[in-house]
Amino acid sequence: xxxVPDMSxxxxxxxxxxxxxxxxxxxxxxxxxxxxxxxxxxxxxxxKGLTLHPRTGNTGQRLHETPSGLLNSIGLENPGIPVxxxxxxxxxxxxxxxxxxxxxxxxxxxxTEGARLLTASSVDMIELNxxxxxxxxxxxxxxxxxxxxxxxxxxxxxxxxxxxxxxxxPNAPDLIAVAKACVDAGADALSLVNTFKAMAIAIDTRxxxxxxxxxxxxxxxxxPIALRMVWELWDTVAVPIVGMGGIATAEDALEFLMAGAVxxxxxxxxxxxxxxxxxxxxxxxxxxxxxxxxxLEELNIRY
Length: 303
Fold this sequence. Notes:
TIM Barrel; eight-stranded parallel β-barrel; 16 strands
């Protein structure tokens, strides 16, 4: 009998070799990190946020470091879904991991048309982004309240048979209510959390650092809050949860898996230390061997 732990899992019918996924907006289209880590060894890759039409993103400064975190105001810069499908997806598929297309939009029509295009492609799953805090239209506005989130999920669900994961905002006044509405509207899985709405002021100019004033806070500073949100959500929805928020080590990832997440996404840690995800995968495996855990789901302490 092999003592090698089984780190594989399935989310909405999609098989993953392990539970570590590159978070949207932090890994480009994968090729940018070739030579820095074993990309083929990752469980999955979430694309940069994709919109129906090209976006140039926000003006001015886009990144700002803060103690134990990173503020970003990228603004969903991307070439548009048609260009992604033609130029980026074929090369992304060659890398090996599960491909998850992160879909965003400024209107219901943009979301649904984008979903139609992605449905006709080879992406394995759609991650519906209704939680981006640093765009002026659409984005987070759709994910703050159940009555705004449900119509988007329902509309996208009607036009796609692809597995649908909805990315939730920690800025929602009632996250559990939003989550339940998304599941009722057809979500196959939930990912959380996106970044926290935050800001910084440049004291030399006495102006906000970002042209958009607010930005999204990620990194270790948000991890304990994100973990608590995953914990609270686990027994209220009957779909898989993918946890994220400040995960930088195997120990961090294990906390989320123990709290009920079936997988994790890693983002800001990759900027600071490109091999972080490879080390996290190895660390989870080492932990499972050390404690005699044979299958990934046995890590969940909620049962």
